[in-house]
Amino acid sequence: MEQQDIIERLTFVASKLRVSKTDFASRAGIGPSNYAKMLTGEQKITDKTLHRIANTYEVPFEWLLTGEGETPDIQPLRTVELNNSQTGNGNINEQNSTRLFEKALDEIAAQRQLAFDAISQQRQQTDEVISILRKTLEQNEKLVNHICEK
Prior knowledge:
- By secondary structure, this protein is mainly α.
- It contains six helices and two strands, in the order H-H-H-H-H-E-E-H.
- It has helices spanning about 5-15, 20-25, 30-40, 45-55, 60-65, 95-150, and strands at about 85, 90.
């Protein structure tokens, strides 16, 4: 994976979304300073980072990683800010609330995917154990039949 090509694809996604680099990173749960270092090549862009970005912005991970496949159709994010809304806690910014909600949803989706993957792996292992047990049972039955014949 060529880091400079990945950087270009990340920059493309952010520009299509019409968000700042800081916003782009924050929404994906990436520290803005770390993201800035990634864009300058000072810090390696990991698969984990690309997965976060792919999940957050619904962009194919493989496309971010390799550039292969169709370029995703990315629409600008909609932001709605309340003008000087006040509550007992001070100013409320609906955009920030929306970000927090989206981040929580992304985290739930990531946790759900991890659980699904773990269940799938466990099921596959269970199927393998059942297959081994069936083969062992067949071999034991053959052995018992062979002994009974003598």
